[in-house]
Amino acid sequence: MSDSDDDRAGFRDGLESSEGDPRILAILNAVLSAAFAWLLVWGGSIIGMLEYGLTNVALVAAGLFLFTFIMSRSSTS
Questions:
Q1: Does any domain span residue 15?
Q2: DSSP, residue by residue, 15-29
Q3: Residue 60 in 3-state DSSP?
């Protein structure tokens, strides 16, 4: 039974020491930013705040991507 506890501690240590592949993090950030931007622009178009279009989605996605990129860099320093 103690072997299972040792495996958990080793797994936890591995997760805490891993910084991840920055390419995967950038791709995940881009995909999630685009999805959230689409949702924000779609919701904004429903209430009449934004016009729904690819340009607006791309601009909001770029802003979200940069914001999350800067925030994640400042928290790791």
A1: no
A2: HHH----HHHHHHHH
A3: helix
The more confident residue out of 13 and 31 is 31
Distance CA 38, CA 14 (A): 35
Q: What angle do CA 63, 64, 65 make, to 5 degrees?
A: 90
Residue 34 lies in a domain: yes
Range of the domain at 28: 20-76
How many structural domains compose the chain?
Answer: 1
**CA atoms within 13 Å, Cβ hemisphere of 51:** 3
Q: Is 10 within the bounds of a domain?
A: no
Maximum C-alpha span of the chain: 61
pLDDT of residue 1: 47
The answer, yes or no, to whether residue 16 has pLDDT greater than 70, is no
Write down the pTM of the prediction.
0.69
